[in-house]
Amino acid sequence: MTHESGTHGRTTDDPMSGPVTAGSTTAGPTTAGPVPSEPMPSAPLTYGGRVRLTFRLARRLARSRALARSVALVFVAALLVMAMFVTLRTLSLSGEQVADNELGRFGAKVGYGSGVSLLPGDDTFFEDLRTRLRAAGATDAEVVLSATDVQLNTTPARNVTALETAWSAHPYPERYKLLSGRWPSRPGEVAVTEPRDVPASVGKTLTVLGDVRLEVVGTVDDRSADTANLLLGPGTWATLDPGLSQGFPVLAAQMDVVWSGERQQAVVDAFAGAARTWAEGRDDSEDTAALRRDPRTAVTATLVTRDQLSARPQKTWIEKTPAGYTVPSLLVPTAAVALVFGLNGRRFRRTTTSLVSVGLSRTTAAAAPALAALAWSLAAAVCGAVAGVAVGMGARLLISHLRERPGGPLDDLAMPALRLLAVVLLTGLIAGAVLARTRQGETSRPPGADDSVSRADRPSGRRARDARHLLAVAAWCATAVYATRVDSPAQAMVLTGIMIAAVLLTIPEVFAGLLRLMPEGGPRRRLVRRQLAADRARACAALAVLTVLLGASLGYVTLLDTLIRTVEKQSYPAVLPGQVLLAGYGSDTHPPSKALLRTAGTSGGLDGLPRTEVRFLMAGDPDNPLMAGREGQYGSLLAANHPRDVERLTGRRLDPGQTSVLRDGGVLVWSHAADAPTGPDTRLRLAVRQGDKVLGRTAALPATALDVDPAEWRTGSDGIMLRATATALDLPIQAHGPVMVTGVSDKKAHALQQAVIDAGLDAGAVLIHVEPDDPVPPTALLATAVGLVALALAAVLAATRSQTRILRRYLARLIAVGIPPRWARQVLLCQHAALIAVSTLLGLVIAVFPTVVLAARISGFVLSVPWWQLAVLAAAIYFAALLAAVHSAHRLRVTEARSA
What we know:
Elements: H1 47-61, H2 65-70, H3 72-90, H4 95-103, E1 108-111, H5 124-135, E2 142-152, E3 158-164, E4 176-181, E5 189-193, E6 205-208, E7 212-222, E8 229-232, H6 244-247, E9 254-259, H7 264-279, H8 286-293, H9 295-300, E10 304-305, H10 306-310, H11 317-320, H12 326-343, H13 345-357, H14 362-403, H15 414-436, H16 452-457, H17 459-483, H18 489-505, H19 507-517, H20 523-534, H21 536-570, E11 579-582, H22 594-603, E12 611-613, E13 615-616, E14 618-619, E15 626-630, E16 636-640, H23 643-650, H24 656-663, E17 667-670, E18 682-684, E19 686-690, E20 693-697, E21 701-706, E22 717-722, H25 723-728, E23 739-742, H26 746-758, E24 766-768, H27 779-816, H28 821-857, H29 867-899
Parallel strand pairs: 3-8, 5-7, 16-22, 17-21
Antiparallel strand pairs: 1-9, 1-10, 2-3, 2-9, 4-7, 5-8, 6-7, 11-23, 11-24, 12-23, 13-16, 14-15, 15-19, 17-22, 18-21, 19-20
Protein name: ABC3 transporter permease protein domain-containing protein
Organism: Streptomyces swartbergensis
Keywords: Membrane, Transmembrane, Transmembrane helix
């Protein structure tokens, strides 16, 4: 194995490939850029002369095509960082955009929310308010009415929001865009936003609230939402039948006043006066009492102006997800520049030694290649930043189209670009300083020699190693401490960043362990190990960069899957398949109304099916009831008449032990409830409480766990017992509760809801089984994950091809002395496989640990490691490395054939 400074196998793209002597000009063809050499100075150079010489040498060295190719990763990193910034800023609105959505063309808004709830057909408050506004001089004021519980005549039952104002005056020009038809201008007319969500077309009739028919006169695009709203013509609410309140008890509307923003106190006084008049004679609720007591203070608290909204933009995803941009914007460019210097380290040291040999100072000789690499890195970063902005703009248009809402402002692109360049510059200067401290004799060792011991024995090497060890210990301690404080996904992302730093500081030890584990049996394996040991710096640089990118990409995939599974766990169907729950309008814990039971009975759809009345262990004031539950827990309990009723309610058969616990006066606790029993002989106490005050406790009761599928109607309950047991223990219990019907087909369930709708009743009181929507991951996290995966693939390709190009001359010499070409290709593949395998394992550690901490620290989070997705990603990375290595090996074979 000969020294690499020889001329055999030299390619034309490396002007730094061999030693130079005083007076020589080239060591290769001029098309690739000659090796710079300067005659030995006859007198010491001045400081200005050394600077000029350094820049002249750097300019000559920058002609290297190998160096130019190696900065491709810096270009990709800069592109990703800027594209992520533009994409994430797209997802958050500015304060002015928020004001356009909430205030439209007006300057202020005042109202009292649900504190002033108008029933259908009630126009007294509206007329009184309009009169007072005219008297106050607010002639430009408009009243916007909103009702959130307008039910469409569709099954499954669905509510939408209805808005009423003078739409012909274009109150929200930046939010609503007319797609077809015209704006509604008379009572009974409606324009439908997002017409794909609610099938409607101009000229058709839309039926809501049982038998309320609205004429569709237009379709509208809502630029701030992707769900449907009904834009009612002025006066529509006042023309509704007041009898709708009987069938739809929760149906009500609220009012807001929007105006130019002048005469604010007069408008507030007008609204407060109308609200006080409306509140007189109403039920003594907290809101109406506040309006009667001091309406001006209550209403003034709801005043919102455009200046206030403009000064409070939405919190950006850059702020909400530190690992979405902030951490990658620092780590990714740093890793890319470090990889450039690591891949070119041997060449830089060889060039430095050559320049020193002709009389240049070590500082000047080392600064020249470092400046060349830094110049290329900065140029690549600038080009990548420009390309990243262009890619981000394309992603911005696509995301805005898919989300059907405007993108956030892009008024500070200079800051991330300057920070990117600053990170590249600082990293390049640090890498150059490390290069300048490299000993002159390092490159004189043959490639197969392991010089780790000699380097470690040097005082400077020992100091650097000790400092790195101290930093590594501090980083791992910080990881352990911060892991105990994680309570949000954003903090889990910060933990990932801290852990990446800790892993990077231990890369040399990991690489040393890899070398110890690699066998030397046989000449090929010995050649792989010896070459990696000889090129330790470049191998560690590649390993560090691949670990960062693989860890970040794998971590994001794992975090996304955990968030999706968590949302899935928290998204329950209202009832289980085959069940229908008849409940109250205000809550599914209340009994159904007589009208609802009568309608269900006359529909005939439930005839002959089992019915079970379920009761919650609660009684008294609905706002602050007495409740019975497990001691130390806040969940309530249910009561059923018979064990067969428990089976119908839970959809599970009881085993003999669970049936025995019920008959012996015990409790079945849901297996997913907190502190559920784990053994067959568990006993627990029940507590009766009112709010946070415990009023009594029971003796210890037998208990066992029951595995059930979660359903929304059981949310807040911990388990179930027999009604006879609750009565014997003198526990509070409902006199009547909701009615569960089992064995209902989907067709009959939908027919029952439709019968309730046709009867003019709120079908939301009939809970049927509907599968929850598939969870959608946050767009910001998804965009970052895609970007990091793309960057990881690019890094693998760049590192593999650069490593292969660097080793090509060395392997060509081995072939020249008789080693089979197949061996050379196997050496390449084994080296790549070893580095990527270790970086993959380290990346998995970085990816999985923060997610495990997140799931363990935050209640309700579900740990989910998407092994098949990680396997696909790892397979793609290995495939990319294999393609790059095979391509380079093919080039090696072609070179060999040409030389023959």
